[in-house]
Amino acid sequence: MVAAQPRGGAIRRARRAIIDTDAHDVVENERALFPYLPERWRRHLELFGTRGPTGGDRSGPAPGRPVSDPALMRERLLDGWGIDLAILIPLSEVGRNNNLELDAALARAVNDWQVVEWLETEPRLRASIAIPYEDARLAVEEIERRAPDRRFVQVQFMGRSRAPMGSRIYWPIYQAAERHGLPICSHASGGADYPTTGAGWPSFDLEEQVATAQAMAANLTSFVFNGVFERFPKLRIVSAGNGLAWVPPLMWRLDGSWKVLRDEAPELKRLPSEYVREHVYFSIRPTEESSRADQLLKLIDHLGFDDRIVFASDYPRGGLADSPDGALPTGLPEELEHKLLYANAYALYAQRL
User: Fold this and answer.
1) Where are the domains of the chain?
2) pTM of the shown model
């Protein structure tokens, strides 16, 4: 496949075409958003901070130069790796607030901050729309506000919403996203009231990092059995930072369970695994085995597809190898490597590029 040229002519061609689907612009302190917040909410944060499931959290002192500073990202990631496009997934307090009006204000501020401080400073960047997803009406308002700017290429959920992501309370969000050709990205970790694991709150961040796949598996199960993909046939889901070796056994279990209990999900017209293969993209970082090409090839064989896997650096959280060669196994077929590094992501975001 010959690499397609994104519209607009702003993208620099590299030795190898690469789209990074998971680069983080981190809001390290809410004070960074003050220039983009109304006075009401600036004063609220100064007096009360945010209030999530575990209580209040006052904003601390203004941070120094963040590790996700645009200039550092340009130096370390975009230029260092020869990235053609990087999709920003902002990490912030959006989605973690019991006060949903505040959550909506923070989402608007995060998106305005992304435009001014990231997108307007670097043409190789695209962004995710932060939304207050626990209030579908407010979330749709923010999608409608930002969708006309084609530099926003997807809608962002964090890994743990207050209900599984296939629940009807989120359907207006999916309807708006489908209408604008925007995939829904569910990013590992972060969220509201519930732990990542199916057995309660973990003791260590190590457990949290391993357990994110559990939350994503629950969300995919919810998407499929609630008939979301039948209701929104053009909707695409991006699983970011959750790995993918767990996906084949999940698809096998979905199919087996549905064959026995299919009357409970009468909307489904095909095997559950077929909906996953058609509608869901998975980022390749972290791969559970990244140094053995033969094992990755076996995994792809079990998945039954190689066109729904996209490249991700997880910058700056995942650390950086010296080059993309260190993030993928050596010895992959050239055509497959091109799919993983560029072609699959381009197909995913083509409507917006």
Assistant:
1) 19-349
2) 0.89
